[in-house]
Amino acid sequence: MTAIVWELEWRIATARRRLLVLNVVVPLFLVLPVAMGAAPAVHAAAVYAVLFAIFSTFGSAIPLVRDGESGLSGRVLRAGVAPASYYLQRTAAGAVLDVLQLGPALAVAAVGAGAGPRAFLAAFLTLAATVWVANLLGVLVAAATRSLAEAALFSAVSTLLLLHASGVFRTPASGSFGATVESVAPFRALHEGLLSMSMMTPVGGGVALGVWCVAMAVATGLLAARLPGSLGVSGRA
Amino acid sequence: MSGSRAGPSADPDPAFEPIVRAVAVSYRYDSGAPALDGVDLEGRPGEIVALVGPNGAGKSTLLRLLAGDLAPDAGALQLPSRRSAAGRVVMGYAGEEACHFESLSGTYNAVFFARAAGLSREEAEAAVREQFDRLGLAEDACRPVSTYSFGARRKLQLVEALAHRPTLTLLDEPFVGLDLDSREALVDLLRDRSAEGGAVMIASHDLDLLPRLADRIVFIHDARVVAGGSTAELLSSVPDVARFEFTLDGGVDRADVVLGEGTTLVDDGDPLVLESDRGHAALPEACLALAAAGARIRAVVVRDAGLAAVFRNVTGAELDA
Fold first, then answer.
1. What is the ipTM of this complex?
2. Which of A29, A113, A136, B204 could form a disulfide bond with A216, CB atoms 3.0-4.6 angstroms apart?
């Protein structure tokens, strides 16, 4: 199977120019007041992390549920595209698009934080890996939901929970259970990458993020054929 | 469907082994109501099978089961391998949902589905171009699907189901929304599939077209197969029944219509439908009877009642109900 779904996603994205522009402009306008204001670095990093993670989870889950409801995903799978290939190609295209759409917002955040090129590159790499994980999380969220409203709710809840576990909203006491969870949580690296743009602190959590990238992709690939009717794989009349 | 009534007789030649077979298949809707109850059916190479029945009879559900879209609650389905030895998807299915990638062109949509079914880009483009030409969709090929009419969407869906030349073609109401030329083009396309050894199964209400398209007709009523056989056999089982569909200026009281022997009032709606087992010869008398009842006739369409009469003989119900 060639990369026809990847190709398809890019075609759709470039055909919907208005949405493409909005997806660049809206994050930019959300980041701008924080970056140009006098928000403390910790608060700014938390805002950015929430925005970037939720942007990707929503952006993956909502269209997937919509295409499942309309029967489009079912048609693609019935036409001969392997489920794992469909979800992974779609997620890969979505993640790359997210990086391109969020890139300008990250650049503005970096300028606001006075980050050097090295810190920006570290934040950029953690962003890229994080949106891959968040997009895969969106697939699993979509599989667990039965409507667009549920998808929005579950996306927000699951992402915020993981952001919380990643230490974005509070710093757990060293050696505590919370600190252990934080050390393996998926969004810690993004948060620390964003913090390092202004605080020049080292970026931790990179290994855990790498493991999440691989584990989520493998899990999606293995579960793909069993993903339920909300994704249009199979259902009842 | 019992094999003796609806299925072809057992044929020892493996070339005529069924491509798809349903044995005592039952399926219930989420509500618990039966959609199919103990249905037997098979589709053989080179055969065009039409599923005929009123709305809600279970035709679409049966096609979805054969497409592997649903799993039966009871019974067994014998479906072909997903892909042929050449790596092509064996089945082509066009169901009720006419969803496409709206922002992309018709050509891109059709080529995408053909490539998904195993064709190379060049093969897919050539196959899609040919079918767009045949179905009269060439002028719309480059426009986004969001600008398509209902008919154009249906044609696109048919191209998507047929472009890879499937061995098993399953089409749900394929003639709905098509103009006359496109209907004829689709008939030719389906005959091509059949001539190349494919099995074609269609669910349709088109009683004018089915007798000259289908090799075999299966009647489904209330979730069961109630009759089936070769089209010629079925049509020969009823007398020469003609069906007259009258368009009237104003209505007519059913009680006032006095018809001769062998002619019955089937439907007093619009159009008003009469059927006569004396064939077309009964038309003048039918017109006079309506005129005597005070009806003003604007137009009349004469059809062979054939399949509708067979269905009524078997079930006692109207096919259009």
1. 0.88
2. A136
